[in-house]
């Protein structure tokens, strides 16, 4: 599996301009070309989205969009698939939505089938971004446009656009939270805090980006200076990776860490988890095995239901909310713009290099979430009901 961080060309000014939701568009569209500041960009983008969706309905008729999703095992991909299908159908497309049970070969054959149908456009959330070059090249040869969804498709020139969240920013939000909570910037000489690190699947390019934001850009300096101590010594990406982002795998690793390094009641101050499925495993393990007398700071991402419940119960400190409804809406708008031959909205300076080409990208903004703002973010916005979190 690939273990390289793929370059991301993003201007700092653009990051600053994105405050909430999907924004910061756009390099190219006439509809959004005047929207350069955060609020204006969001507003302009939203109205452009509705216009695009509404006006694409006629041209969508008779067209099929293939949507390849990685797995139903994790909550977010179920939401993404459901949102994409609903948005695409509302715009008038027929949808071929497939889940691949985190099995790369299954995803390859699902995409092969979509190519031979053929679909009119492919939207792919990959299991392993570098493993789909053959079916994607076949799609390209047939003139089928390809959008990488959430996860970058790597080592191929057969990808036209990428729609995602600012993934390095997700990591920075997590890392900065730990810095702030432990007041690391003001730590007195000799003060140390124990931390352990959990990230995701090495084949998912996003995992590398989250790691870069949280560790390389933010926490590494405190590990290097000795303020943060990783007692297990497991502090490189490969040692902290979690195959398929599985809760059970993270839980088993945390069980091992506790029994090997913390069984005598040594305190764990923080566990940096790149997402909620790994955080949940860590929380389960702590509940069963940890006797350090505190609940460590634990980070996450996605605002999965069990994790929001754990935030409310004080077992998880924070998460990062990525509104999958917004990502679906922007991706469907992209499909419409591509298939109607219009200029496609992308984020200025936001192209990702995938090892072969710079892929024009539309970036949505991740938002910090914790027990103090989840109601506003998740309930008031209709993402969840109160009952979902009861
Ligand atoms: C997504 C995260 C998700 C993880 C596991 C990543 O590619 O960006 O939101 O938690 O996959 O599904």
Notes on the protein architecture:
The protein has 390 residues and is α/β, with parallel strands linked by helices. It folds into two domains: 12-165 and 323-366, Rossmann fold (3-Layer(aba) Sandwich), CATH 3.40.50.2300; 168-315, Response regulator (Rossmann fold). The protein has helices spanning 12-17, 38-60, 75-90, 104-116, 133-141, 167-181, 205-225, 237-240, 247-262, 276-289, 305-312, 324-339, 374-379, and strands at 64-69, 94-99, 121-124, 146-149, 161-165, 193-198, 228-229, 270-273, 297-298, 318-321, 352-353, 358-359, 361-364, 367-370. The chain has a six-stranded parallel beta sheet, sandwiched between helices. Strands 7-6-8-9 form a four-stranded parallel beta sheet, sandwiched between helices. Mean pLDDT is 88; it is low at 1-5, 7-21 and 28-56. Bound molecules: beta-D-glucopyranose. Beta-D-glucopyranose (BGC) is lined by residues 74, 76, 150-151, 200, 204, 206, 245, 275, 277, 301-302, 322.
CATH third-level topology of the largest domain: Rossmann fold
- Give the SSE order as H and E letters: HHEHEHEHEEHEHEHHEHEHEHEEEEH
What are the low-pLDDT stretches, counting only 5+ consecutive residues below 50? 1-5, 7-21, 28-56
User: How would you write the strand order of the largest sheet?
Assistant: 2-1-3-4-5-13
**Fourth CATH level, the homologous superfamily of the largest domain:** Response regulator
Biggest β-sheet: count, sense, barrel? Answer: 6 strands, parallel
Average pLDDT number: 88
Total helical elements: 13
Question: What distance lies between the first and last C-alpha atoms, to the nearest angstrom?
Answer: 39 Å
Bound molecules: beta-D-glucopyranose
């Amino acid at each position: 599996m690939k273990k390289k961080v793929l370059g991301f060309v993003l201007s700092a000014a653009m990051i600053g301009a994105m405050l909430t939701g999907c924004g910061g568009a756009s390099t190219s569209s006439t509809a959004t070309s005047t929207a350069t500041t955060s609020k204006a960009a969001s507003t302009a983008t939203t109205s452009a989205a509705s216009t695009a969706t509404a006006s694409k309905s006629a041209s969508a008729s008779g067209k099929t969009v293939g949507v390849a999703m990685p797995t139903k095992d994790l909550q977010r991909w179920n939401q993404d698939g459901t949102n994409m299908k609903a948005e695409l159908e509302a715009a008038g497309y027929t949808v071929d939505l497939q889940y691949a049970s985190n099995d790369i070969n299954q995803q390859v054959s699902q995409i092969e089938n979509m190519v031979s149908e053929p679909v009119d456009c492919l939207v792919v959330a990959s299991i392993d971004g570098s493993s789909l070059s053959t079916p994607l090249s076949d799609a390209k040869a047939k003139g089928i446009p390809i959008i990488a969804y959430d996860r970058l498709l790597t080592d191929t020139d057969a990808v036209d656009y990428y729609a995602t969240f600012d993934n390095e920013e997700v990591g920075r939000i997590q890392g900065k939270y730990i810095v702030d909570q432990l007041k690391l910037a003001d730590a007195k000489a000799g003060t140390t805090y124990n931390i352990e690190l959990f990230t995701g699947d090495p084949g998912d390019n996003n995992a590398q980006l989250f790691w870069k934001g949280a560790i390389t850009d933010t926490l590494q300096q405190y590990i290097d200076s000795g303020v943060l101590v990783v007692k297990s010594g497991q502090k490189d990406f490969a040692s902290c990776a979690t195959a398929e982002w599985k809760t059970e795998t993270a839980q088993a690793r945390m069980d091992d860490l506790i029994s090997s390094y913390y069984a005598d009641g040594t305190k764990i101050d923080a566990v940096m988890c790149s997402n909620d499925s790994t955080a949940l495993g860590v929380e389960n393990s702590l509940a069963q095995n940890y006797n350090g007398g505190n609940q460590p700071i634990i980070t996450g991402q996605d605002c999965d239901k069990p994790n929001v419940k754990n935030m409310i119960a004080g077992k998880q400190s924070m998460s990062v909310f990525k509104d999958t409804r917004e990502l679906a809406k922007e991706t469907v708008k992209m499909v419409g713009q591509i298939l109607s031959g219009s200029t496609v909205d992308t984020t200025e300076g936001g192209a990702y290099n995938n090892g072969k080409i710079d892929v024009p990208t539309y970036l949505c903004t991740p938002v910090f979430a914790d027990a103090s703002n989840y109601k506003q973010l998740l309930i008031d916005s209709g993402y969840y009901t109160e009952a979902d979190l009861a």
